[in-house]
Amino acid sequence: MNLILSVWLFIAVSFLSLKGFSQTGSVSGSVVGGGKALEFASVGFDGTTLGTTTNAQGNFLIKDVAFGEYTLVVAIVGYQRQTKKIELTPEVPELNVDFDLNESTSTLDQVVVTGTRTAKKITNSPVIVDVINSAILENTQSVSLSEGLKFQPGLRVETDCQTCNYTQLRMNGLQGGYSQILINSRPVFSPLTGLYGMEQIPTNMIDRIEVVRGGGSALYGSGAVGGTVNVITKAPKKSGYDMGYTYQNIEGASEHILSGNATVLNESKNAGATFFVNKRKREWWDANGDNFSEVPEIENNSFGTNLFFIPTENQKFDINLSSLNEYRYGGEMVEGAAHLAQQSEERTHNVLVGNIDHSLKLNDGNSSILSYAAFQNTQRTHYTGIFPDEPTEIDIHLTNPPYGTSENTTWQGGVQFNHNFDDFPLGSNVVTIGMEYVEDDILDVIESYNYRIDQVTQNFGTFLQSDWELGQDLNLLSGVRIDDHNLVDQLVASPRLSLLYKPFPTTQLRATWGTGFRAPQAFDTDLHIAFAGGGVSRIQLSDELRHERSNSFSASINYDKATERHVFGFTAEGFHTYLRDAFFLQPLGEDEFGEVFEKQNGDGATVQGITLEVRANYDEKIQLDAGITFQSSQFDTPIESSDVLAPRREFLRTPNQYGFGTLTITPTEQWKVAMNLAYTGPMLIVHFAGAPEQTEDAFVNSQAFTELGLRTSYTLPMKGIGTGLELFGGIKNVTNSYQDDFDTGKNRDSNFVYGPAAPRTYFFGVRLKSL
What we know:
By secondary structure, this protein is mostly beta strands. Helix content is about 5%, strand content about 55%. β3 (about 40-45) and β4 (about 50-55) form a beta hairpin. The chain is globular, with a radius of gyration of 29 Å.
């Protein structure tokens, strides 16, 4: 008996001795990014095989770690890799280390909402969704939405007026009226807003931009034929601030930009607000020495807020409100009233836009109801005119100059119900059903020109969607939207079907078919009055104008291989869209004020092509993204552009090749160098007579342009006050690739403009931001 007790005593003492002299410990902690827990983040020790991944709550635990000094590394695609030095000792055998990661320029596997109207990772979305995040906007020195959009495949932003520089977005070869721009998933970017709105939205207002190309976005309704751009504004994620000043010099013309952001969250993180402010002032600039501007004067003041409140665990309110005020002047570069200039356009916009969303989760999160309302109101005063030469006409002009007013209001309201069927045959299915109403009311009047657009569009839409996951490798997305539009005689049904197949974990194959329509109404470019032939040209709608239908197909292969230090991927997509009863502009000749064009229906048109993308990332230190589109856009039958020119089938102002590239190098956490490229191939343009250089109407094949940009920055951390001081500078359009054959004088053809929006531009700035 004594022997047994002795043995047990020896074992117990030995165990306690071993425990007391154990040479291992453990490390635990959490990983968050953007205010949310990050699942599947890789956590490990540099130079060893010890490691783990985070769970659904973002937590991790690594056991049996030998005492010593280590570098703990956390990495996950879409966020910047982060390291921390730690030391485990007998005195401190257990450590808790938390990480808060910053987003990177790599958008692989980011969660998006635009493709399916529900939140999904990019690699799991049956519809291709490209993302422009705030890091890309910063690295390309984009000061407005219009500048940032050109750094995505299949997208091209063009300047369409030499005098006022209004812009439009072309997607997959289709002009601006075929693309729908959403603000926080709401279609309040009206036809009038579309003329100048892309340049009025500052980038410090934007969190990210989600892009869906082609007819697969038709679930958003009329206007989403070419694709959908969803501008997601900055939302409260963590308390902090960011303020800066930028100076830009456009070949001698100065531009000053002041920007600021601030975010506040309460202790329990169930309420918060973020605010932005932006002030931009740019001088006019003359490219050819005729004292008429090619880059207009701009003064823009913007501010807004984004709020959220979570009253209970299963519901949330989001409120967004923004005010955009812009003064814009282009034409003869003289001081004084606009109507005293030889030729000018003057615009003052006051835009108010906002939305409120309420989301409610039910059935343990398997069901949700989203209710939403949104609006925008634009008040505009404007002048578009040429000072006449004849004394009688001068008297009439001075007595009743062509000033005008515009008022535009858009309302939207809707409800969306989602339910997840976990036990659906062969897998799970998220069914979405909803309805929404959109009304847009625009009144645009210039009494001197007998010009009046009084248009009210009302659309009630219902939609049904099935997002059926047939196992881990196959997803079938099907849906239909039915619209009742007040300008269309019958209901319009727009079905869509998308298939996603993952033959390998790194590869996705997609195919999409969808239909859409455009109502017989005035869109953005139809509301612009241009100069040509010594007068003003206007667009009117045919009394016989019918709605236009689209039929779109696309197929793609997407490959992405991600390791702890490398990411490489490519995408190849083919697209084909057929437009039935395609809209076109028919010249009607001149009246007492100038050229008149009428929007009519043609037989049809085909837009087709292929887009290639490549992306790579090394250790979050080198990031490369590039894409190019090859395409053709043609009407079925030739279209007349001028009464003295032969009809042509080609779409005007539509190059057959265009692309982009961005390269970011971050050798240290403080130092960054970013380069970018935008390529625009040759395009067919009509050049109307009127200017001294142009005595007759003619077609012109433009040259190709390659626009290069460079930005470098250094951030000095001031950790004692949790602040970083960033100094940056660079050059846009380094090689000054810019149009060199502008018209001169007051009788110039203002639509004869193509290529980059601005010549070589130098910039530098300073920024204070919380770390």
